[in-house]
Design a protein that fits this description.
By secondary structure, the protein is an all-alpha fold. About 75% of the residues lie in helices and about 0% in strands. It has three helices and no strands. The longest helix has 24 residues. The protein is elongated. The termini are close together.
Length: about 70
């Protein structure tokens, strides 16, 4: 189960990374990295929270679909 969780989490974080790049470079949003440097606006916190939401969604999927492989 740990290996499946790791694999699905990597895929979820990759998807969020691509969405975050789209929001940064094509929609001109501030970016999630500002949260780590301080003084971040609300949209940066939303983009940062997407990474946690992706990991939580992967954990939920792994726990509910025990027979599904990666």
């Amino acid at each position: 189960m740990i290996v499946r969780l790791f694999g699905w989490t990597v895929l979820a974080v990759l998807a969020v990374f691509l969405i975050n790049n789209y929001l940064n470079y094509w929609q001109d949003l501030p970016g999630a990295a500002l949260v780590l440097h301080g003084g971040a606006p609300l949209l940066s916190w939303v983009q940062f929270a997407l990474y946690g939401a992706g990991a939580a969604l992967a954990a939920f999927y792994v726990s509910t679909h025990r027979d599904m492989t990666l």
